[in-house]
Specification:
The chain is mainly alpha-helical and 78 residues long. Helix content is 85%, strand content 0%. It contains 3 helices and no strands.
Length: 78
């Protein structure tokens, strides 16, 4: 489960409450919204986290290739 700092969790709970009220015409109390956030964090959060890591790795590999190419070009100029 992904753990959030207190102020971040409070903001996310407010966003969940606002979304439910505006899009679903369903009022949620703070407790219900926190429960929903915890559920999504536990059940889905890991998938987002893993995708973020995969995206970061792709970026790192791309930059690594660029640096390796630049170094190779410098070696050829000598």
């Amino acid at each position: 489960m992904i753990e959030f700092e207190k102020f971040v969790k409070e903001e996310l709970v407010k966003k969940i409450q606002k979304y439910c009220a505006e899009e679903l015409q369903q009022e949620l109390g703070s407790f219900e919204a926190q429960f929903l956030l915890d559920f999504f964090s536990e059940e889905i959060g890991g998938h987002y986290y893993n995708q973020g890591l995969a995206d970061a790795l792709k970026t790192f590999e791309s930059k690594h290739e660029e640096i390796a190419d630049s170094i190779y070009q410098l070696e050829k100029l000598k």
